[in-house]
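user: Here is a favour to ask of a fellow structure person. I have my own habits and do not want them to colour yours. Could you put it straight underneath, so I can go through it closely?

assistant:
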Amino acid sequence: MSQHSHHRDEPLRNLWVLRDKVDDFSGQMYSRYPTRFACRAGCDGCCQTERVVSDMEFDALALAVAALDAETRARLAAAATPDGPCPLLLDGRCSVYAQRPVVCRSHGMPILMEGRRDVCPLNFTPDDDGAGDLDLDALPAERLLSVDTLTAILVTVNALYCQETGGDADRRRPVSELLER
């Protein structure tokens, strides 16, 4: 269950609900296919490019970064490089993992995007018990995360957030801006 109380008046409430749904899906997939995921703490292959996020997710990340101790914030700022990995990575781990963006929560999951099925090449490979590759095409649709649907929901939730807060629903901000504050 969520770490948030989802107060009706809280502008980020819809983001928290969406995150919970993505996390629930991921949890079900990890439970169903426990040996098929290489994703673990320290696996940062998906984090090797900077992310841009909506105003809503930027503001949520700003709260998470502000909650970090001053030393951690200083280490993140010192380690950040242009065209480098996500500036929130510290020692190969996400410094704000519990508050990471929706796109980061979807990494590693089997996805459906624009009619194509895909998954991280490290996942769903032969496992230790001798089973072979899991056929992505054989997975039922309900075991695929629809990136198109998720993106449409995220855009809508961000638009509502921006309506409430005066943000810009079309703006995308680099995560590195969080460390310039």
Notes: The longest helix spans residues 13-32. Residues 13-180 form one domain. The chain has a mean pLDDT of 89. Strands lie at 52-54, 89-90, 93-94, 111-113, 116-118, 145-146, 172-174.
